[in-house]
From TrEMBL:
Residues 119-321 form the Tyr recombinase domain. Site-specific tyrosine recombinase, which acts by catalyzing the cutting and rejoining of the recombining DNA molecules. The XerC-XerD complex is essential to convert dimers of the bacterial chromosome into monomers to permit their segregation at cell division. It also contributes to the segregational stability of plasmids. PROSITE patterns: CB, TYR_RECOMBINASE. It is found in: Cytoplasm. The gene is xerC. This is Tyrosine recombinase XerC. It comes from Oryzisolibacter propanilivorax. GO terms for molecular function: DNA binding; tyrosine-based site-specific recombinase activity.
Amino acid sequence: MTGQRAPQAAAPPPLPSEALAYLEHARVQKRLAERTLTLYTLDLQRLCAHAREVNLPLLQLTGLHLRRFAAQMHASGRSARGIALILSGWRGFYVWAARQGLIGHNPAHDVRAPRAPRPLPKALAVDDAVRLADHHAPADAADPWQEARDAAMVELLYGCGLRVGELIGLDVAASSDAHRQGRGWVDLEGAEAHVFGKGGRRRSVPMGPPAVRALQAWLARRALPFAGAQAQRLDAQALFVGQRGARITAQVVWQRMRQRSQQAGLSTPVHPHMLRHSFASHLLQSSQDLRAVQELLGHASITTTQAYTRLDFQHLAQVYDQAHPRAKRQEPED
């Protein structure tokens, strides 16, 4: 029938006096914004709803009750971050109640939200990574000096799995100064990059022939803009330098990788760490040697490296879905 109003959702029962007193404290004493007060009110309404389920007032709930409530929210699909925010609201209420002498112990003190799943590292498809590594800008549209430098950076990020900080910290050669200051260097004759990673951990990473060739091409051009009177501008130790001769910054590497990926026709803007993820994922797909990948990445714990096994499983699941006859959904017969 037309003209009828949709039924109104039932208003939540009024909050108990202690909850209202806390909200007034938050408004007057803490001077919280209206939006924040609204969120605090919603948190307390949720807490009251849970309290009614166990037939207890707010001030008689225990940590066990709150953990059960958090588990129920998690089971219903609420995110770990959302639960953490709600628990923060409850914790604030009980802190206030304890200070007022209304309770002897804060039941929310040790209650934690479920751990949020670690996001999978983003990696390029093998074809896209190779396309980026093989990309060469048209000769009439490229600065040969910048082109040689950027190509060498891509090879070390993807071919060696370096972090951007490790990349920009590389020197042209080993030196006592590099050792003292925790910088790495490249050894073209030995085809190795020696880097200092997180926690001051040193590791040696093999360089493939494309990386060695790219570095040779870069080193042949590196000092050309700084000949003669400009020589003093060049940082003689830094492997990768900017147009002013100083050691390149991480921000510039990010900008150059993003621009280079666009020039190569990739649909996804690439950042340096994505190439490190791609290095690990593609190596693991081929070798299945988790310990070796851990060593090459410089991870202190293999737990960190295991994130790539989840990524690899996603790749295998896609292959299965696309290729295995039993993975294809059978349409019901008429």
